[in-house]
Fold this protein.
Amino acid sequence: MEAVVLVVVIVMLLSAVAVMLFKDFLAALAAMSVVSLGLSFLFVVVRAPDVAMTEAAIGAGLSSLLFALALRRLGLWRSQ
Amino acid sequence: MRRFTAALFLLGLGVMIAAIYQHMDFSNTAVNAGQAINAVAAEETGAANFVTSVVLAYRGIDTLLELTILFTAAMIGGMVLGRRRVDAPRDPDAGFILRTGADLLFPLLLVVGLYIILHGHLTPGGGFQGGVILASAFFLPLLARPGSSINQDVISIVEGLAGATFIIIGLLAMFDGKEFLTPLLDKGELGALISAGTLPILYLAVGIKVGSELAGLLAHLAEAEALD
Amino acid sequence: MDILDINIILYSAAFGLMLIGIGGIVISNHLIRIIFGIALLEAGANLLLLLSTYHEGASAPIIVDGSVPAMMADPVPQALVLTAIVIGVGILALALSLAIRVQRAYGTLDMREVRLKLEQEISENAGIEMPSSSHAPAVTTANSAAAQQESGS
């Protein structure tokens, strides 16, 4: 159990760093979704299934959609 | 220079957190309020999911204020983005797969969203999660066909009615001589679909309000003019 | 300190997310990157709030089939975080629409350029000479253009 949590935390923190370092905003957005998914797994680990569901629906789903729409409006919607 | 000061600031923050780690007692956290609520929540509200009882019964006013914040954010977002020009170019329709998939997914998303909202007092889930799924269900056709648009007037009417329902249920408790937002009606059997008094109705109102607000916000963002 | 203690792993995740978020806000110059930083900071804060009452071995605060578990997790911070996440998405949408507005008004999302244009606008409207930097003493007009370029780099 601890080993699985450790792996998820490492992946999550690495993708959080990637959000800040990626030049391409679309890739940064994808890394942001990975952070949200890892976080929702951690919420299940701390026995909060309600919060995990909210984070998966809102953090990984809706806010990625918001960011994607805004990037399209800002003209940053380009894969390099 | 600015980056150097920023790095220095981050280093200091890291050292501070490391110092907190040294003196942290990880295994001995106090949960007094939580234990008291866990002991009495099943009898007092009749909801099997205690998070629902806290969100809607013990901290109902908190939820009402939270809905107000969301409403304000959505309203200001719409105001800041403004209306598009009539002759502004629109995106072309999406491809065949996305259009067909949107048509197929719409009823399924609607059913899943309503299921999650209506079982909020029994299983994990509830108004917020289901409301987000409802919002994405109504936004999906707009993603497939950017030419069509959601009627913002209908959205604001639905949103206002849902918010009014929440407040009126709270006021009904006051007419009954209790405090604002006290759960009313029969508690019913623990774990049955129709139980917990007014909590499922309140969660339905929350779900519809969150769903319509977020759908309106997404539609506003999608309607804003693209630069390129 | 055992590295495989679950409490330490989870607290490291929360503090790590907050540190990366703050670092992004402080170091980055791009407005969208700053909004990403705000989202990361908020995620870390939510996890920290939930961890404040976490007990190993507690079960989720839900009664299944009428049997009440011996120890249940605290539902109060869970309810707080539930609402905080929804508020977070509202704030995110507001920040993104303001970013769209900033780009329409100034044509850029780089905070240094936005700040420069803001200062120019203010000094034009007020009819005063623009300072080369908010900290530097007043300089003559010939030097100010060179000083601006220096401070902007």
Observations:
- Chain A touches chain C through 40 residues (CB under 8 Å).
